[in-house]
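Board notes (copied after class):
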Amino acid sequence: MTELNTPIVTDIDRPILVPPGGHKKVLLHSCCAPCSGEVMEAMLASGIDYTIYFYNPNIHPHKEYMLRKEENMRFADKFGIPFVDKDDDYENDRKEWFAKAKGMEFEPERGIRCTMCFDMRFEKAAQYAHENGFHVFTSSLGISRWKDMKQINGCGHRAAEPYDDLVYWDFNWRKGGGSARMIEISKREHFYQQEYCGCAYSLRDSNAHRKSQGRIPIKLGVLYYGDESTQYEPQAENKIIVEK
């Protein structure tokens, strides 16, 4: 069982969560600290022994990738949660991601490019779970209102299918105030506040939208939840570049 270093700060009367099959050991694929904060605290409150699995070669550029990973690691360390960093070959993994995305560069958010992206990450998570004694894996991705939960759950179940001893836990982390607590925890912890989904094409499209509104491009590593001093004024226009 995971040993907690710090008591849970959020004072919430949560229901007790029971993973599929009554298992008490779960592998949590995490995309970032803001999305996983509520998921982590909810599982801790239910006494679930879980490990964070971080594999997100879609995140671009590398500076943004490191910001998101380090915030996630910081929060995991606060509670003594094991953190598996599987982006040990980030450069080759990101090249593979771009190769898989070829021909989908202009697909919309929640489209087939996102399905490919979820599949790639969940397949790795499922393989790790199978090889390391986890019978249940889940993800923090679905808590975001910007994501298509049906799409994410479909990818999760598909990733688990090759393994007879593994299931994907498609719990709705948004319900019962989960989405609101996600923001509450992010502000309490002053998490880094990312302004786009993560991939190069999401950054491109987000900046294109901002430009159409007369706003400046996204500045990496600037905004933090609950810290007004990190706000910046959207005013100038710059050229949008997608790097590979």
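Comment from the instructor: The mean pLDDT is 90. The helical segments are 33-45, 62-79, 90-101, 112-131, 149-160, 178-189, 200-212.
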